[in-house]
Design goal:
Layout: H1 10-20, H2 28-41, E1 45-51, E2 55-62, H3 68-71, E3 73-75, H4 81-87, E4 91-93, H5 106-110, E5 115-122, E6 128-136, H6 144-172, H7 178-202, H8 207-214, E7 226-232, E8 237-241, H9 248-253, E9 256-258, H10 264-271, E10 275-277, H11 280-286, H12 288-296, E11 301-307, E12 315-321, H13 329-366, E13 376-383, E14 394-401, E15 405-413, H14 418-437, H15 442-455, E16 462-471, E17 477-484, E18 490-492, E19 498-500, E20 518-523, E21 528-532, H16 544-556, H17 563-575, E22 583-590, E23 605-608
Antiparallel strand pairs: 1-2, 1-6, 2-3, 4-5, 5-6, 7-8, 7-12, 8-9, 10-11, 11-12, 13-22, 14-15, 15-16, 16-17, 17-20, 18-19, 18-21, 20-23, 21-22
Helix pairs in contact: 1-6, 2-6, 2-13, 6-7, 6-13, 7-13, 11-12, 14-15
Length: 609
């Protein structure tokens, strides 16, 4: 381990680190850079680490475990980046636990460091202030591409540190000279721009939102006339975004172009380098095929920065100015960093879309195709919660059984995510198997399901309502059901009378081996049975009894509505309220009796064990 007492760069480093004004707390710009490194390199932890007299601290961190995530610092005894400072160059380690340079470092065990790659962060004098680190908890052979990307990000990070130092020096000197004042102001504006970019892009969830965000990236120190983006599409062409703010003539000709096109965006995409032409003469010399369009738009300087992705470049950002502009190193650093932010936002959008696609596919696979029952008309719907999850633990089911019997199921595993959906799928599949396997009472079936849930170690907590409908010779149907903690079903008669079918037992998974009850009710001809999850009647602030009252009032006013139309209206009814839970519902309507007049005789509800 390096001894700070013999470090010739120690005083310069400590002074420069102090001049950054950073400490053991998160900084938005450096947290964003750490997050970008973590995502692009696929490592669990990424750090912006700086060294002072007695510690290393982390103004940028992503994936750091406790207590380090709160402390944001360690003693120098834990600082692998001391070796980066001592060597004045990168430190790349495949397995820190077996590497003589660091195996005795307490951070290896305490912070779970195995693979480590650290690139030096420097000030304008070249003094190493710390390191941009990528950390893996498993041994890792770092590729040249990964190290090159980490090195590029370290350059951008160093530029941000230099901007901070320059800005603080200028402030301390009270803008002693016009040149220093201009540099400090530009540095401050660029830092503000980077922070604005990180905030705007952090909230983007679609490509359209990303384009809208980058269109706002202007400041006095960095004021392009236009910012656009091109992205690689499914046909391996670069699709243009943001051109709708240009003239129709240009927009119609620049919808997309091949990656081999002789234009700045394609060249930046191919080479991975920032491309810039700072005046009309340079544009015409570098990109003659583009020069007339650029002149027609009034642009006198153009640039393009590649947008990085995990598996290669995703596209490029394009910038244009209505005046000549030869970019300096700080401005180029801003463009590269913003492009990195955009790449991170795009990766998030891609990930969200993949998740949404998987969720939609899984939910559709779990939604049962309703059987054709002849005498009973069925309808069912599933509505995800308002917070945006596309899949959850609610489900419905309908199965025809021997003896003209129809089994109906409605259930709810707590949660609305893939974990809840997986638990729901397991319960649903077990219950389907039990129903097909043998004829038994609803209570016996739920007892078997509860036992299997416990015996297989799932211990899933869920509410389930299982009902059988058996057709009788007089056109009525006998309803037998057992309720494991689920909202009561409702019945609507042809006369508009709405009845609740009470009776409930403990939830599945709540109390093992508790006896359950089977209840009975005669559905008259033309009656409608509604089974639903609690999302249909519960709201954030309301009382559930009021929810049932409103639902029954709604049902009474729609007594003559066909099941499919009623299901659609119930979805609209549910979607007018702020819900935190999913909604699943299934409707069964019995056929009306021929020539039936008047209100049917009241049916009797009974229960048996």
């Amino acid at each position: 381990m390096n001894d700070e007492r013999h470090d010739p760069f120690r005083e310069a480093r400590v002074r420069a680190v102090a001049d950054t004004g950073l400490g053991a707390g998160g900084d938005p710009v450096f947290d964003r850079i750490a997050g970008l490194v973590r995502n692009l390199l696929g490592v669990p932890v990424a750090l912006v680490s700086l060294l002072d007299t007695h510690r290393q601290f982390f103004p940028g961190a992503a994936g750091l475990a406790e207590p380090w995530a709160t402390r944001r610092q360690t003693p120098l005894s834990h600082a692998l980046c001391q070796q980066v400072a001592a060597a004045q160059g990168p430190l790349v380690i495949t397995d820190a636990r077996a590497d003589g340079r660091c195996e005795a470092n307490p951070a290896v065990a305490e912070m779970g460091i195995a693979g480590y790659a650290g690139m030096p962060l420097t000030d304008t004098d070249g003094t190493v202030l710390g390191a941009l680190c990528a950390i893996d908890h498993e041994p890792r052979e770092w590729t040249e591409a990964e190290l090159s990307l980490l090195s590029d990000m370290a350059v951008a990070c160093s530029d941000s540190l230099r901007l901070r130092i320059t800005s603080r020096h200028a402030e301390a000197a009270r803008v002693s000279a016009a040149a220093v004042s201009g540099q400090a102001y530009a540095a401050s504006q660029r830092s503000e721009l980077l922070l604005t970019a990180s905030v705007l892009l952090a909230g983007a969830r679609t490509v359209t939102q990303i384009v809208a965000a980058i269109a706002q990236l202007t400041s006095p120190a960095f004021a392009p006339s236009h910012v656009g983006m091109v992205l690689l599409d499914a046909e391996q062409r670069l699709e243009v975004f943001g051109a709708d703010r240009l003239s129709d003539d240009v927009t119609s000709r620049w919808v997309s172009f091949p990656t081999s096109a002789p234009v700045p965006a394609a060249l930046a995409f191919r080479t991975g380098q920032l491309i810039a032409s700072g005046d009309p003469a340079s544009i015409r010399a570098d990109f003659p095929q583009l020069a007339d369009d650029v002149a027609a738009l009034g642009w006198q300087a153009i640039a393009a920065a590649p947008v990085p992705g995990i598996r290669g470049p995703l596209g490029a950002l394009t910038f244009s100015w209505d005046h000549s502009l030869h970019l300096d190193a700080a401005q180029k650093s801003v463009m590269v960093t913003v492009a990195g932010y955009v790449g991170q936002a795009l990766q998030r959008v891609i990930h969200l879309e993949e998740q949404n696609t998987a969720a939609r596919t899984l939910q559709q696979a779990l939604l049962t195709r309703l059987p054709d029952t002849g005498q009973i008309r069925l309808a069912a719907r599933y509505l995800p919660a308002h917070h945006g999850d596309l899949i959850g633990g609610d489900w419905y089911d309908a199965i025809t059984l021997p003896g003209d019997r129809l089994a109906l199921v409605i259930g709810d595993v707590s949660g609305h995510n893939l974990t809840a959906a997986a638990a729901m799928s397991e319960l649903r599949s077990m219950l389907r198997g039990f129903l097909i396997d043998r004829l038994d009472t609803p209570s016996a079936m739920l007892e078997r399901l509860d036992h299997a849930n416990h015996a297989l170690g799932a211990d899933t907590i869920a509410t389930v309502l299982l009902a059988y409908l058996d057709r009788q010779d007089d056109g009525s149907h006998l309803l037998h059901w057992s309720n494991a903690g689920h909202p009561f079903p409702s019945v609507v008669t042809t006369g508009g009378e709405v009845a609740t079918l009470p009776g409930t037992d403990p939830l599945l998974g709540a109390r093992h081996r508790r006896p359950r009850s089977t209840h009975h009710y005669r559905l008259p001809p033309g009656a409608t049975l509604l089974m639903h999850t609690d999302g249909l009647v519960e709201t954030r602030d309301g009382v559930i009894d009021d929810g049932f009252a409103r639902l029954h009032q709604f049902l009474g006013g729609h007594r003559d509505t066909a099941p499919a139309a009623l299901a659609d209206q119930l979805v609209e009814y549910a979607d007018t309220r702020i819900r935190e839970d999913d909604v699943a519902l299934i409707i069964a309507a019995t056929a009306p009796a021929d020539g039936l007049t008047g209100r049917p005789a009241a049916a009797r509800c009974t229960g048996t064990a």
